[in-house]
Every structure is written in structure tokens, then in C-alpha cells.
Amino acid sequence: MSDDRPARPSDIARAALEAARAASASRPRPTRRRIAGPRRTWTGPRPGADDPQPLGNLVDALVNQQDWSARTKVGSVFGRWDAIVGPDIASHCRPETLTEGELLVVAESTAWATQLRLLAPSILGKLRAQVGGDVVTRLRVVGPTAPSWKKGPRSVRGRGPRDTYG
């Protein structure tokens, strides 16, 4: 056989494969790349500080760190009012303000205001159990009121605003 005949496609492919294997063998092996940041160490069977945490735990830690616990308790009185007093009572009244431990509750009618005054000790007990004993110490229940011209907690007795143009 003579070497003058043209190369077959399988011979070309075989030669290319051998050249690629030789080039690959001469290259240095890649090392495992280290991700930037602190090196993780084995923390044991429990989660470590750098492991993913539940969102509730992170929020609780932030509230304690920033000393927002009193504000979150006050907010939970208003935010969880339906769950604390129950849906029946909550549908007929709403908390209005919380000042120095006194919670002002506005009832939808005078009959409900009277009923809520009778239920005040049990409502205070529920608030102490759910929110904490030092947040709400007194409960003041008022009925619906007509619109007033009074602005603020202090005012002067009299006829109120009137037309002063003769």
C-alpha cells in the first residue's frame, strides 16, 4: 500500500482525538476554587449563626436588639384586636387610643358600651394573657358620639364656633 492515497475521515478524527488527549494531559489539573468570604467550619449538629434562620427568629432578635418590645406590644393590641377579644365583640367595637396604660374603646352603640363595661375585667384578663400585663392596665369604654367642634383634650365652655359677621 502506498502513502499517496488520501486520508480517510476516520483517520483524521482519530488523529484529532489523540492530539486533544495529549493537550489535555499536558495541562495542569484545575484546583477547587474557594468562594470569597469567611471560611465555613463545621458547627456540629445544631444550626450555626451563619446558617439560614427562620424569619420570625430574625425579627425577634431585631426587636430585642433595638428595644422595640414595648412598641410591638402596643401595636399587637391594635393589630390583633379581633383575635384577642373574639370576632363577636370586635365587630361591635374598636380600640381607639392607648395612653399611659389606658385603652380607649369606642362601641358602636350605647347598649354595646354598657355591655363592654360589664365585660371589661374579662377583656383586661385576655389582654394580659395575650399581650402582657404591663401594657393595658385600664379599659375605658365610650359609646358613639356626635361630631364635636372640640379640638384636643382641653377646651373652653361656650357656644362654640359661630358666625361673627353681624
**Oligomeric state:** single chain
Strand order of the largest sheet: 1-2-3
Provide the gyration radius in Å: 38 Å
Terminal Cα span = 132 Å
Strand content: 5-15%
Structural class: alpha+beta
Order of helices and strands: HHHHHEEHE
Q: What does the average pLDDT come to?
A: 82
Low-confidence parts: none
Number of strands: 3
The helix tally amounts to 6
Task: Reconstruct the topology from this structure.
Elements: H1 9-26, H2 55-66, H3 69-79, H4 81-85, H5 87-90, E1 93-99, E2 102-107, H6 110-130, E3 138-142
Parallel strand pairs: 2-3
Antiparallel strand pairs: 1-2
Concise account of the structure shown:
By secondary structure, the protein is α+β, with helices and mostly antiparallel strands.
Characterization of the model:
A hairpin with a 2-residue loop joins β1 and β2. The chain is elongated, with a radius of gyration of 38 Å. Strands 1-2-3 form a three-stranded mixed sheet, with helices on one face. The chain is α+β, with helices and mostly antiparallel strands. It has six helices and three strands, in the order αααααββαβ.
